[in-house]
Amino acid sequence: MPSDAAALPRELAELATELDAGDPLAAYRDEFILPAGVIAYLDGNSLGRPLKATRERLAHLVEHEWGERLIRAWDEAWMDRPLALGDQLGRAVLGAAAGQVMIGDSTTVMLYKLTRAALEARPGRAEIIADTENFPTDRYILDAVARESGRVIRWIEPDPASGVRLAEVEALLSERTALVLLSHVAYKSAYIADLPGITRAAHESGALVLWDLCHAAGAVDVALDAGDVDLAAGCSYKFLNGGPGAPAFGYVAARLQGELTQPISGWMGHADPFAMGPGYVPAAGMRRFISGTPPILGMAPVQDMVRLIEKAGLPAIRAKSVALTEYAIRVADEALAPLGVTVASPRDPAVRGGHVTLDHPRMKEAVAELWRRGVIPDFRPPRGLRAGLSPLSTSFAELATALAHLRQVLTADL
Question: Is position 238 annotated as part of the catalytic site?
Fold first, then answer.
């Protein structure tokens, strides 16, 4: 434990206790597997904790759905699961009506499919708008697709401590713009982009918008239908607690589904998969965006977390997320700033997602030491510690403990 000299000031420690006592979501923490060797886990925005229910669900799936029903399970349940779970995810997390979300592929593949589909739907337009601070996969995919299709990328260089602003997008939009690809929540700073405003501006120029929801889904309010969003993709292993390698999700607005052609024409997206015919005929609706065989095992943990989110309610989850990040910033200001720590996330909770990034010149070494102690945050070069705060599994006391250890480590380093 932290020494008395490096522990948090009494007022901050007592505040964490008070916040836990008044937390309406506190009981949900018991739903998760909490290993004794981890003192504090602040990496829920990279890999969420597993649910106890998932341990039971996977055993049941192997023993009964797979073990007993065998191939019959495809007809009985599995064929429809990517779309049924997609509808549940859309309802509980994404603000999307039924028939617009499917589960499958990796996030990388899903982004590729939707990017290519969007560009094919805008053949006379030569430009893509993206930002240099987006997650590497998004940028790498756009580079590859631009080379394949002969498009030009117009790069926004946003402030790394915030994110892409509406005015920066508007400055590049024109009749040449085919697609805008941005993250709803910036993976470094947690800045929440103006999803409805940017989408509306893109539509006024005739472009489509693809939103990356990896750091948004399950942590902030996402209203895809209300925002008139065209396309979205995201992972399920962060705030959706689907586990390592859990499948991605894709959203295509109903108004576009008949217009778009996805580039990976696998047999599961065929209108009649078991006809085994000579040519590809896309299925109606969202099924046409499925390519290969759906990852049934990988979807099981996502089912459990989406049910838990629906039970707790996303507004309550978002409220706790704001409270957790507010507490982290207060501790940083009052107890860590004298050690050289700065807050590299927005201070306005209205534009801050589910994590807080703290900067320090020796943060890489500090995070390595924290991991040795059983305190698990995330490091992002060159000098950032990301405190990923999953509201249903993270307590205020856990967060306070982690920040007290960080204070001790940085004190010892000085």
Answer: yes
